[in-house]
Write a structure and sequence with these properties.
- This protein is α/β, with parallel strands linked by helices.
- Strands 1-4-5-6-7-10-11-12-13-14 form a 10-stranded mixed sheet, covered by helices on one side. Strands 2-3 form a two-stranded parallel sheet.
- Strand 4 and strand 5 form a beta hairpin.
- It is elongated, with a radius of gyration of 22 Å.
- The N terminus and C terminus are likely disordered.
- Bound molecules: S-adenosyl-L-homocysteine and iron/sulfur cluster (SF4).
- The site of S-adenosyl-L-homocysteine (SAH) has 18 residues, from strand 11 and strand 13.
Length: 400
Amino acid sequence: MNSPTAPVTQDVLTIARDDAQETDKVNLVGLTRAQMRDALIEAGTPERQAKMRVGQVWQWIYQKGVRDFGEMTNLAKDYRAMLGETFEIRVPEVVTKQVSDDGTRKYLVRVAGGHEVEIVYIPEEDRGTLCVSSQVGCTLTCSFCHTGTQKLVRNLTAAEIVGQIMVARDDLGEWPKPGRNPKDETRLLSNIVLMGMGEPLYNFDAVRDAMKIAMDGEGISLSRRRITLSTSGVVPEIARAGEEIGCMLAISFHATTDEVRDTLVPINKKWNIETLLSALKDYPKLSNSERITFEYVMLDGVNDSDEDARRLVRLIAGIPAKINLIPFNEWPGAPYKRSSDARIKAFANIIYKAGYASPVRTPRGEDIMAACGQLKSATERARKSRREIEAEAGLSSGRS
Ligand code: SAH
Ligand code: SF4
């Protein structure tokens, strides 16, 4: 197991350092209703009661945030004891939590095997968005993405994905009182974006199951419209995402020619721009209120010309779309620079004139390396020399 690593910056709050306790109990978190039913029956729950028991346990776990079977007071004592012997309610262990000057929170959590992933919570005026990871690292190697430089990769389980939401709710103190599930828009955690580490469509089943749990009306109860899955363009899985998850879709587009996209988002060599766009035209849930978000990272001198902006507009014609311009977030050793503000403005203006909203995503949590594309697990970072780590810390604290 990993030995504890020294905090990188002083504002790192060390919450827990023990390795995750791995037991042979079955974790109820992350099971679909059908899977939970099977598990309860196998543990001795009479079949005719199973559906009701699932409903009860589900509410305790996902509506009330209970982690101890002893607290499930509408279940008989013996039954609670049986549950406690056979099952557990386990979420990823929070290793550190950092809070940015702008209120963004970044959690480093440890999952089975000692792997670590990051979760970012971004509070905004009208919403609170949790940026959830789907994999430890990423098998893809987009050249502008810090996560893509991390070698260590494994898929997260559904439990580890939905567990990220539960961990954030713990920290935000947001487990509503029974019968008083606040409306989505007034919740601290009102939106989810699958934009953390990993390519969600390369971990389809676990992502789907976790999002289904998050959407379940008797639990976390988030509307599918408040969940956005971002993909680099895994074309064969896009239609399935529409059919089986039904959430909003964001595409890491980032370039307007195959030549440039091949270098930025190498999956383009497998499924090029034309193939990707035709899959998007077929996305079953398309309608004006459910537009696809095209994410476009602004890289100085690489993809940010007026010609690029015009080409982008031509390419996506006919697809109900929003374009989200993301100023490049730098990371140590990154091979690109962020486009200038004037260039981003000029680019945005062309898009705006073509009839698209063209919001520029304000980088959040940069001082704690929590912005898009900056995530990389600390186990990986710990492999760097002390000097590199200090330089990194100096870089972040030096920001105004
Ligand atoms: N793997 C998925 C989701 C995670 S990345 C995907 O690629 O879509 C979330 C978004 O951040 C993607 O659009 C990604 O391309 C972008 N991104 C990655 N690195 C970035 C960086 N350094 N600066 C700005 N955006 C970045
Ligand atoms: Fe993976 Fe997305 Fe980063 Fe590309 S941008 S390396 S797909 S996490």
